[in-house]
Amino acid sequence: MATVTNWIDHLSASEVQGAIYPGVGSEGILVILGFIIWIGWHVITAKQESEKLAKLARQRRGPNDWKSNITDG
User: Fold this and answer.
1) Helix or strand run (H / E) with residue 8
2) Which pLDDT tens digit goes with each residue over 46-71?
3) Cβ(17)–Cβ(11) under 8 Å?
């Protein structure tokens, strides 16, 4: 097992230089992908909530319907 005694020499070596961790340079792509997923999640959530509220509005329940224990059936 190899050990590193001097990190400055190790990181400035020609075979290691610039490659400190895997995936270097892909941060921008990951940020864009995360932004697309975030916007998509909001669109899907808004659509599902609108459908649910429209379904509840079609039932046209009154303010006292909870007293009759009406189910969503």
Assistant:
1) helix 7-11
2) 999 999 999 888 887 777 777 777 66
3) yes
Q: Mapped to the 3 state alphabet, what secondary structure does the chain carry?
A: CCCCCCHHHHHCCCCCCCCCCCCCCCHHHHHHHHHHHHHHHHHHHHHHHHHHHHHHHHHCCCCCHHHHCCCCC
Please give the average per-residue pLDDT across 9-26, as a whole number. Answer: 71
Q: Return the structure tokens found at 9.
A: 């020499």
Distance CA 18, CA 24 (A): 8
